[in-house]
């Protein structure tokens, strides 16, 4: 299966997916990385690992739809089967999200449906939660609202800050994202 990854920054989840896809028996090939930030550190990693990249700034487009149309054209050009959002900090127009529903995944650092949106680690701490985690889910037009595919739990420890909790959660993200994509690409889980 042909997979594109969309990033906006560091791209550590993208790195985990690229590394996993290097194994001969992995059922997916990372065919491209797209970023809305031309200076996204993850782009350098993708290029160094032989993965084609494309980048366009949303600031260059008059509307969300026009920007999404460029992303769509890039994905069609790469002939992708699935799209993995990995720290992609843009909200899609409804039309784009609807078109890719069933072929687009995201990873969110909380046990959805808890703590949607920004700063989920801080939300969990503010909530006095003792357990946190991350979720790979289907992308649908509603933000962070698609059905979960795979989740992992991490403990919240005394003295945790948003940073220490994010670091512990990120390690779990790097495990479940490659596994969720493997399950999907191998047909182990039904498409949405
Ligand atoms: C991760 O916490 C991910 O769950 C969230 O944004 C962060 C991106 O990290 N979507 P990275 O860019 O994959 O390192």
Automatic annotation (TrEMBL):
Keywords: Purine biosynthesis, Transferase. Its EC number is 2.1.2.2. Pathway: Purine metabolism; IMP biosynthesis via de novo pathway; N(2)-formyl-N(1)-(5-phospho-D-ribosyl)glycinamide from N(1)-(5-phospho-D-ribosyl)glycinamide (10-formyl THF route): step 1/1. Residues 1-181 form the Formyl transferase N-terminal domain. Transmembrane segments: none annotated. N(1)-(5-phospho-beta-D-ribosyl)glycinamide binds at residues 11-13. NCBIfam families: PurN. Catalyzes the transfer of a formyl group from 10-formyltetrahydrofolate to 5-phospho-ribosyl-glycinamide (GAR), producing 5-phospho-ribosyl-N-formylglycinamide (FGAR) and tetrahydrofolate. This is Phosphoribosylglycinamide formyltransferase. It comes from Devosia yakushimensis.
